[in-house]
Design a protein that fits this description.
The protein has one domain (10-123). It has helices at residues 10-20, 54-66, 82-88; strands at residues 24-25, 44-47, 70-76, 93-96, 118-123. α2 (54-66) links the parallel β2 and β3. By secondary structure, it is α/β, with parallel strands linked by helices. α2 (54-66) runs parallel beside α3 (82-88).
Length: 126
């Protein structure tokens, strides 16, 4: 993956949306100049952050959950990182994805499988 701006495959998003009924996307591919870190999130938010900014977005997800919100993240499954141990492990439910995710590029074209594992992380309201 050459950059970290990729679209969540619909089969993953749709299944999560059926369960959590999202009313916000913290990291839309075309944010129209609005940084998801600088605004309040919806009551049920989906988050597929640029993986170079996982630390910041996971910290924000914890803050939003403490404000009574549900945040569901599609994240790089890297359990060796500081952000995972600081903002995911102590606060969230983790669902491991079997196999590698086939993300879409910004044109909606399917890319090759991700070179790393992915996880679903759920921060529930506190």
């Amino acid at each position: 993956m050459r950059n970290d701006n990729y679209i969540t495959p619909s089969n993953i998003y749709d299944k999560l949306d059926q369960e959590f009924h999202f009313n916000d996307d913290a990291c839309p591919l075309d944010p129209n100049g609005i940084d998801g870190l600088l605004r309040e999130w919806g009551s049920s938010t989906f988050m597929n952050p640029p993986y170079s900014r996982c630390h910041e977005f996971c910290m924000k997800a914890v803050q939003e959950s403490h404000n009574g919100k549900t945040v569901v993240g599609l994240l790089k499954g890297d359990t060796s990182t500081n952000w995972f141990h600081k903002w995911v492990l102590p606060y969230a439910e983790i669902r491991f994805i079997r196999g590698r995710v086939g993300f879409l590029n910004s044109n909606g074209d399917k890319m090759s499988r991700s070179p790393f594992n992915s996880i679903i992380v759920i921060w529930k309201p506190c």
